[in-house]
Write a structure and sequence with these properties.
The structure holds two protein chains of two kinds.
Chain A lengths: L1 H17 L1 E2 L11 E2 L7 E3 L5 E4 L6 E9 L17 H14 L4 E13 L2 E11 L5 E11 L2 E9 L2 H17 L1 E2 L6
Antiparallel strand pairs in A: 1-3, 2-10, 3-4, 4-5, 5-9, 6-7, 7-8, 8-9
Chain B lengths: L1 H22 L14 H24 L3 E2 L2 H14 L11 E5 L6 E3 L4 E5 H6 L3 H16 L2 H9 L3 H12 L5 H17 L3 H17 L6 H15 L11 H13 L15 H8 L1 H12 L3 H14 L4 H14 L4 H15 L4 H13 L3 H14 L6 H16 L1
Parallel strand pairs in B: 2-4
Antiparallel strand pairs in B: 1-2, 3-4
Helix pairs in contact in B: 1-2, 1-6, 1-7, 1-8, 2-6, 2-8, 5-9, 5-10, 7-8, 10-11, 12-14, 13-14, 13-15, 14-15, 15-16, 15-17, 16-17, 17-18, 18-19
The chains are: A alpha+beta, B mainly alpha.
Chain lengths: 184, 401
């Protein structure tokens, strides 16, 4: 059964990769932000998320989101507010993570204030296991700007991929820029 | 490869069936006697027990257990009061509490009963606890899991469908992953209507014999239905679903109490019951606060305060509920609760920071600075010290400008 599961995941990964863009591009400004895609990373086409990977999403991925402030989270009923401090926004993210039943043995390693290209935000580092017992490590940056909660996260499946690919995430993070959304 | 997969599939199917049996299913044939065709039953039961033990180890390993020896001892005392004279050999009923704000309780075939902290925190007295435990004990002692296993052994597709549904149930995925199919079935889907009715009927008798009023559980059902409505049907219940809760309430309502019931039993007092739950009430309130279920959290804290009216952490949590809820009218109430927490224990750092945050957001930087400084002084190695130092820096800059 496990093999079947992994096979299914592999098929998904291959499907994703089949419709992926290669690195070096800029995220279109129509999304309200732009970032440089690290060399060698691929953008996985997805209408809802901006998802990048180098090998496949089960090894490592970078996810960038800009979600409206009032949008509900999946687990906690708390909502972000424009008047929130970065620490309060971070607390909601932590509450959401802890309340997420899919994350087993969640360990919050660090939660600190952080500037993200000039914006006051936060940085959270945590590890967790999935249903299959695989451990993942995530570095999560977030900040509130006007009525949007921006977040950028890097997740890797093991220490090797985390150490190897974290620098690419940092480079991408430095290139992050909020832009005026283009209209169609 | 095919043989191996087939064996795995058969094994998983067997486990699923066992779980279904233990919990609560729908096609049970009432005329089936308990474990009479001994060899098959014995093998199946052995497998069920082994599987149960493995799943229980996973639950413990994944940090899902709320550890409180005193509380466990109390829960086991209630079990002892309920225990019938005739119990299958080797079956030892044990109770353990799972850290989860969701309302649930479930039994493994090997006698292990798990009850969620959320369900305990919602109870008002020992009679309600007895009603829940007795129901689960009937599932164990009357081998409902085994009976369900026998019933569903030829319906693997049904079981797999149930498992998939369980794994998608909000609030229970973590537990479902940890306990596997057997536990998931027991925890969420429940047994067949006939087995549930049997558990209600026999449980009713045990509760009555132990000196409790079984109809106290009706109030708990009402509470659950109310919560279910409030949560928009997102809450997983150990009764399985909204109609099942109603069915269970009807079962109970239709059972007749004897004319004479001992109303002097020492289990009517909410106060004494809350004292037994003790810290669990606050621990579960913290979980509800994380979920943004502020009203439910508040009720738990108030229960706790009814037994320990001078507890600084309880007042701090009330402050947190009001501050995090974020209503304008809540700010002063939050400040009042934080102030009371500090008066009760001036060395408790958390309310100092919380007051600092409120003043900081109001732009009252001099006042905020005072509280942030006192917080750091009381707890210099606080995990959030980087945030506090940042606030202090801005407060100082604000003063200078």
């Amino acid at each position: 059964m496990k093999r079947l599961l992994w096979f299914s995941l592999l098929i998904c990964a291959v499907s994703f990769l089949a419709c992926a863009h290669n690195g070096g591009l800029n995220r279109p400004a129509s999304y309200g932000y732009k970032v440089d895609i690290p060399e060698g990373w691929r953008q996985i086409d997805n209408n809802r998320y901006f998802l990048l990977t180098k090998d496949n999403p089960f090894k490592q991925y970078i996810l960038v989101q800009n979600r409206p402030i009032g949008k509900s989270f999946r687990h906690t009923k708390k909502k972000m507010r424009t008047t929130m401090l970065p620490e309060e926004a971070a607390q909601i993210v932590v509450d959401e993570l802890i309340s997420d039943q899919n994350l087993v043995n969640l360990k919050l390693l660090n939660n600190t204030p952080e500037k993200i290209n000039g914006y006051d935000g936060f940085k959270i580092l945590y590890t967790y296991q999935d249903a299959e017992g695989h451990t993942f490590k995530t570095l999560y940056y977030g900040f509130i700007k006007d009525d949007t909660f921006f977040n950028l996260r890097f997740t890797a499946s093991d220490r090797f991929h985390f150490q190897r690919d974290i620098e690419a995430f940092r480079i991408m993070l430095r290139s992050f820029e909020i832009v005026k959304a283009e209209t169609a | 490869m095919n043989t191996r997969l087939s064996k795995l599939f058969l094994f998983l199917t067997g486990l699923l069936l066992l779980l279904v049996a233990t919990a609560c299913s729908t096609r049970y044939k009432p005329e089936i006697s308990l474990v009479t065709d001994s060899l098959l039953a014995s093998e199946a039961e052995q497998m069920l027990w082994q599987k149960s033990e493995r799943e229980q180890r996973t639950i413990e390993r994944n940090g899902l257990i709320y550890t409180d020896a005193q509380l466990e001892s109390y829960l086991n005392q209630v079990v002892a009061r309920l225990m019938p004279e005739t119990v299958p050999a080797d079956l030892v009923i044990r109770i353990s509490v799972i850290k989860s704000p969701y309302l649930n309780a479930f039994a493994y075939p090997n006698g292990m009963i798990y009850i969620h902290s959320g369900l305990l925190a919602r109870m008002d007295n020992e009679a309600q606890l007895a009603a829940v435990l007795a129901h689960e004990m009937v599932h164990c002692i009357h081998r409902h899991a085994l009976r369900a296993f026998r019933e569903y052994r030829n319906q693997p597709a049904y079981l797999i469908a149930v498992q998939q549904a369980l794994l998608k149930t909000k609030g229970l995925q973590k537990l479902a992953h940890s306990m596997g199919v057997t536990g998931a079935m027991a925890a969420i889907s429940g047994y067949a209507r006939e087995l549930e009715a049997e558990a209600d009927r026999i449980g009713f008798e045990w509760v009555l014999r132990a000196g409790y009023n079984p109809k106290e559980a009706l109030a708990l059902f009402d509470q659950m239905l109310s919560d279910l409505a409030q949560d928009g049907c997102e809450e997983p219940f150990y009764f399985g679903s909204h109609p099942q809760i109603r069915q269970r309430a009807d079962n109970l309502q239709n059972l007749s109490l004897p004319v004479m019931i001992d109303t002097s039993a020492p289990n009517k007092s909410s106060h004494a019951f809350f004292a037994q739950l003790d810290q669990l009430l606050l621990a579960n309130a913290r979980l509800d606060i994380r979920l943004g279920r502020f009203q439910v959290a508040r009720e738990s804290v108030e229960k706790y305060l009814s037994i320990k009216p001078d507890d600084t952490r309880a007042y701090f949590l009330l402050g947190e509920i009001h501050r995090q809820r974020g209503l304008c009218s809540d700010v002063q109430t939050a400040l009042d609760y934080y102030g009371r927490a500090i008066r009760l224990d001036p060395s408790f750092a958390a309310p100092h920071k919380a007051i600092g945050l409120i003043h900081y957001k109001k732009g009252q930087h001099a006042l905020a600075k005072k509280f942030f400084e006192s917080c750091l002084q009381l707890s210099p190695n606080s995990p959030d010290k980087a945030y506090i130092k940042g606030y202090l820096k801005r407060c100082t800059l604000s003063e200078e400008s």
